[in-house]
Amino acid sequence: MNYLYTIGYSCFTVDEFCEALKKNEITALVDVRSQPFSKYKPEFNKDNLTLVLKNSGIKYVFLGKELGARTDAPECKINGKVSYYKLAEHKDFKDGLQRVRNGMEKFQIAIMCAEKDPITCHRTILISRNIKSENLLIKHILENGELEEHSESEIRLLKLCKLEQEDLFKTYEDRLKEAYEVQGNKIAYAEEIESEEWN
């Protein structure tokens, strides 16, 4: 059984963040932000974070181009909004997932983005959904440092989307797929469309 962790940094100081990683024996951090910078928490900018993690014995890898929630690929957008379904089929995204799979052979990996709640972030709605398998256990590190298994996150996702009730016409997998699609559409990046109204 392989393990993959995810974490959102917005609720941690950089020291607390490193402690949460060390507590879970993380040896490599995969940054999946589209841009590896934070205006609100500059200590999590790529250069500083790389150094802090190195001092904690943790390798840093930026895969925002491959696994970020934003993309320049027009074929992954519908009316200027990223489609997680289309993005999941893109070669760069698939290559990024494979790099994570390959990395898990040597490292205990945590995927990092900003959001504290995994079900409001693409690290769960896009990445975890597409990398999960029977021989991979995904655990999300929460803001209190506790762990939530991905299956528990999916139950919360169903509740968030009001799809937790059994349905005569929809299987659990049907309802879960719908919940992923609803939440993916809600959180997906959309380009700002300039208004044609009078200025």
Q: SSE layout and pairings?
A:
Layout: E1 2-8, H1 14-23, E2 28-31, H2 46-55, E3 59-62, H3 64-67, E4 77-78, E5 81-82, H4 84-88, H5 91-103, E6 109-113, H6 122-131, E7 136-141, E8 147-149, H7 150-160, H8 172-187
Parallel strand pairs: 1-6, 1-7, 2-3, 2-6
Antiparallel strand pairs: 4-5, 7-8
Report on this structure.
- The protein is built from eight helices and eight strands.
- The protein is α/β, with parallel strands linked by helices and 199 residues long.
- It has one domain (2-150): Alpha-Beta Complex (Protein-Tyrosine Phosphatase, Chain A).
- The protein has a six-stranded mixed β-sheet with strand order 3-2-6-1-7-8, sandwiched between helices. Strands 4-5 form a two-stranded antiparallel ribbon.
- The protein is globular, with a radius of gyration of 17 Å.
- The protein starts with a strand and ends in a 12-residue tail after the last helix.
- Pfam families: DUF488.
- It comes from marine metagenome.
